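Notebook entry, structure prediction.
Reason for the run: the old model in the group folder had no record of what sequence produced it. Starting over properly, with the input documented here first.
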Amino acid sequence: MGTHNTSVAGTGYIAIYDPFSEKVTKLTAKGFDSPRGLSPGGMDVVPSTHNPDELTIYVINMRPPFVDLDPDLPPGIREAKRDEIASARTKAEGPDPSIEVFRYFLGGDSIQHVATWTDDKVVISPNDVVGLPDGKGAWFTNPVPYRTGIVRVTFLNCSRQPLMLIHLCLK
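New structure, fully documented this time:
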């Protein structure tokens, strides 16, 4: 407890489930081209106040730290080196979390990326998000005010009273 998965992050995705057909459909994330990908945690889906067929999806993204490498490295080596460094940095520093905002239209097979919200002084270790209608903001929780280290482990293992830091992020 208190450690993060340091395997290659960013291979997550958003899917929809149809309980009538029991079909799961992986949604294509249009406009989301982060090299760190999507590592989803908490999520909220909020209906639009203007269009009954439109949903706003808020996702906690526990993405690995950014790694900037020499663009002249051969592509296969560049990705392998980036993943190796990101894994080591995630273990040492913790993830670099963000809140991703997407739009979805009922019946579609894709989501459109709208925004990435991040602030390393506020979005520390989020685990859940509650979105406001139409992508205008979200409440999110930071249950542990530390990303890594013995203080995080001690806090998780010894805290008798849960601490929940709740923040509001407005667009």
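Summary: The helical segments are 75-93, 149-158.
The old model has been moved to the deprecated folder.
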